[in-house]
Structure formats: structure tokens, C-alpha cells
Amino acid sequence: MSQTWTHVCSTAELLPGEMKVAFDAVTGTPIAVFNLDGRFYALEDRCSHEDFELSAGHFDPARGEVECVLHGARFDVRDGRALCAPAHTPVTTFPVKVEDGQVFVRDDR
């Protein structure tokens, strides 16, 4: 398990309703970071139904969901759970920390 935090951006660069992708500094894992009403959440940037980037899809901040553009699977950005078929498996979540106005994530698997 990596203890290294990866810098994503400043909080001013990721406004509510926006998402940004970072790559873990140790594992290289793509991580999608979401600003949902001022709280930050991170998911592996990979649909659990088929290996495709979630960040290519639509983030709906009103519902707290991201939709995979490939087949329409939706996931809750807060906990990664699959919300509809064709996905049944949750997406991996990662810890986020905000320190001195900067957003960090890490692949803690």
C-alpha cells in the first residue's frame, strides 16, 4: 500500500460540479477526482463493467453520479457503488485530502 500522496490541483482549480483526472505517483493508476458541493471524492478512472475511462462520461453533480459513456453504467461518486446495469460491481474509491488549499489523492490498495 502506497503512503505517497499525489497532488491533483488546487481547490480553486476544481470547482463544485467539476472533475479532474490524476495519475497516482507510485502505481500510475488513473484516478478521477470529483468536487461534489465542495467535498472531494476519488474513484478509479475505470468503469467496472468494461475497462473504459469514467472521466470520458458525464458527471451529474445534482445526483452525485458519473455515467460511463460506453454503455451507460452509472456510479455514485461518494462510494463507488454501481447504480444501474450493465455494471454490478462498484468502482474502487481512494482517499482524498485537502491541505493548504491543495487536493491530494493516493492509491491505498
Automatic annotation (TrEMBL):
Pfam families: Rieske. GO terms for molecular function: 2 iron, 2 sulfur cluster binding; dioxygenase activity; metal ion binding. Keywords: 2Fe-2S, Dioxygenase, Iron, Iron-sulfur, Metal-binding, Oxidoreductase. InterPro entries: Rieske_2Fe-2S, Rieske_2Fe-2S_sf. It comes from the Bacteria. Residues 6-105 form the Rieske domain. This is 3-phenylpropionate/trans-cinnamate dioxygenase ferredoxin subunit. It comes from Thermomonas hydrothermalis.
